[in-house]
Amino acid sequence: MCDTLKNSLVAPIVSVTDSVKSFINRICGDLEPWQIVVYTGGTTFAILYMRDFLFHDDENLSDRAKNQFFKLAKKIPMIRKKIEEEMSKATTSIAESVNKNVEGDYLLRLPASGLPSEKLLEELKRYKKMTNNSWKTGMVSGTVYNGDDSLTELMAKTYGMFAWANPLHPDVFPDVRKMEAEVVRMCCTMFNGDKDSCGAVTSGGTESIMLAMLAYRNIARDRGIKIPEIIVPVSAHAAFDKAANYFHMKITHIPVDEQTRKVDLNALKRAIGRKTCVIVASAPQFPHGIIDPVEEIAKLGQKYGIPVHVDCCLGGFLLPFMDKAGFPIQPFDFRVPGVTSISADTHKYGFAPKGSSVIMYRTKALRLRQFFVQPNWTGGIYASPTFAGSRAGAIVAACWATMVHFGEEGYVDSTKRIISTTRYIADSLKSIKGIFVYGEPLVSVVGIGSNDFNIFRLFDALVEKNWNLNSLQFPSSLHLCVTLLHTQPGVADQFVQDVKECVQEIMKDPTAKCGGAGAIYGMAQSIPDRSLVNEIAGAFLEACYSTQTTRPPAVTNGVHGLPNGDSKTAQ
């Protein structure tokens, strides 16, 4: 019985196997052994290549195909030569631009003898004169969010008191450890976290965002997902792309509604898959200052069991105080079920010194996944909560001092002034024919576009009037990020008046070509091969570290008489 059953099952398999063997032998009958090896290896390689090309988790197929096309095209000698010529021109132009406000030659090595304090302070003052101080009069978008002299003095004194402190050694510096814990707890309370909420102080919004993405990647890896996916609105901060790049994750960008500039919820829902490890909402997003529908996104997160991160880096010290300032908004923080983490910058509207931000989690279990521990190092057990090992305790102390100095009342007052000014500017710009305001800006950013002319012409015209704004792409636009400096008497009115005058002039010939910096931004946006834009951006970053002047070297040796310092033009 058993033999009969076995034969009935095995016989068909043997028959099929014999047929396949005969077929393969007929095909290979006229081939030499080396041909069989080469054909087999080549076919295997081609199959593996196509598999990796078609099913690579890091990028979608269309992006990979486009990148591969441009990569091959740039290997054509004529095209490569033309690109190299244009890149050389661009690199030279960038270097000249970076160096245009630099005085004196660069120091290339330590002076043989150090400078006394008095002479060193004189030298520092000479360096300081290179700074563009137009931000003090409110002519710069964002960048400096307070700038008050008395606050600067308070932070400087605080920094001096804790200049040598290092949070890496909490046993030596318990004062800074306590301050950092209090900064985190105060922020968690601001965002309506309960006693289980927690977080860490970081060096800035980018680190806060990246730490959260690292935590969610680690959680996904534990579930067997090799390359986890981040889902973000296309308007989300580039730090999420940086996290995906650093941590070998896939990032999927969801389009926004053309009118409201809020993320398309239907498209977001369709993008959710088994590899999705986190969904992101911005409150508000950087380009046009629009708040994504946090409650609806959080509901999707709950439905599919996916964490939701709210990026509040820009609005972190505005949104929590808007209700008390008289500008009620929809819940966006830990009051919303499903929100699992929030990033908020203390060094923007919190007015703390640059280099401070906070990442917050709903539970300690989530925060634990951002920590790094090496238990087997010969130097001892090594553990750090953020990317850095040693950190500047003075920054933590100055952040703590600033928050305690302002208190809730101070932040409610600054929020009231900033939001009032932003909405005044937005309402005023809406009445100017030829431009429009993107969406409904509720916080501190006003995005400006035009259907009648190249908006970068307005950017150039405002630069001529000494305004320093942010130029944006996809779509072409610009924005003003309102800070406390813009609430000074007359600043908002002057901005509106300058925009009005510039637009009126542009509308006399709306189809005229754009020149100056605006042309560069427009060109960068239109280049289909984005790797070229990467190269141009890389040239800018290289220029920032260059010690080669773009003008004839000074006749005298040394920078303002620094003793024995080699300050020749770099070769």
Automatic annotation (TrEMBL):
Pfam families from the UniProt entry: Pyridoxal_deC (PF00282)
Record has Chaperone as a keyword: no
Protein name: sphinganine-1-phosphate aldolase
CDD domains xref list: DOPA_deC_like
Enzyme class of the recorded protein, top EC level: lyase
Keywords: Endoplasmic reticulum, Lipid metabolism, Lyase, Membrane, Pyridoxal phosphate, Sphingolipid metabolism, Transmembrane, Transmembrane helix
Annotated localization: Endoplasmic reticulum membrane
Record family assignment: Belongs to the group II decarboxylase family. Sphingosine-1-phosphate lyase subfamily.
Residues annotated with N6-(pyridoxal phosphate)lysine modification: K348
InterPro entries: GrpII_AminoAcid_Decarb, PyrdxlP-dep_de-COase, PyrdxlP-dep_Trfase, PyrdxlP-dep_Trfase_major, PyrdxlP-dep_Trfase_small
